[in-house]
Amino acid sequence: MTVELVAVERRIWSGEASFVLARTTEGEVGVMPGHEPTLAQLEEAGVVRIDPVDGSPLTVAVHGGFLSISPERVSILAEFAELADEIDVRRARAALDRADTSDEEGAAARKRAEVRLRAAESATAGQ
């Protein structure tokens, strides 16, 4: 199936994949070719995994957006997305330490930092 992951600022990845795993506001969705058409809102901060037909799985920290599925195509439209191997772990840890969870904005910043670290760790564990 054709998969395209696009963030507001750039195209993150596109190509052929055998599987996509994403977390939506309704729960985790695993997608294989022939999946029933679906439109879902992505979790505010989550990890997406794409298993390309050729190559190693990709792990991406995704913040907000939508997932559109048809039998032969998956489109992931994110507000912000970052490939796991592009994540600066030191900066993500610092952001996690700085996050003030006493308000909604600080709690969201903490969640984004946690997801970035989880994506980076998933990519490292898979190597």
Automatic annotation (TrEMBL):
<keyword id="KW-0066">ATP synthesis</keyword>
<dbReference type="Pfam" id="PF02823">
    <property type="entry name" value="ATP-synt_DE_N"/>
</dbReference>
<keyword id="KW-1003">Cell membrane</keyword>
<feature type="domain" description="ATP synthase F1 complex delta/epsilon subunit N-terminal">
    <location>
        <begin position="1"/>
        <end position="81"/>
    </location>
</feature>
<protein>
    <recommendedName>
        <fullName>ATP synthase epsilon chain</fullName>
    </recommendedName>
</protein>
<comment type="similarity">
    <text>Belongs to the ATPase epsilon chain family.</text>
</comment>
<comment type="function">
    <text>Produces ATP from ADP in the presence of a proton gradient across the membrane.</text>
</comment>
<keyword id="KW-0472">Membrane</keyword>
<keyword id="KW-0406">Ion transport</keyword>
<dbReference type="InterPro" id="IPR001469">
    <property type="entry name" value="ATP_synth_F1_dsu/esu"/>
</dbReference>
<keyword id="KW-0139">CF(1)</keyword>
<keyword id="KW-0375">Hydrogen ion transport</keyword>
<dbReference type="InterPro" id="IPR036771">
    <property type="entry name" value="ATPsynth_dsu/esu_N"/>
</dbReference>
<dbReference type="InterPro" id="IPR020546">
    <property type="entry name" value="ATP_synth_F1_dsu/esu_N"/>
</dbReference>
<keyword id="KW-0813">Transport</keyword>
<comment type="subunit">
    <text>F-type ATPases have 2 components, CF(1) - the catalytic core - and CF(0) - the membrane proton channel. CF(1) has five subunits: alpha(3), beta(3), gamma(1), delta(1), epsilon(1). CF(0) has three main subunits: a, b and c.</text>
</comment>
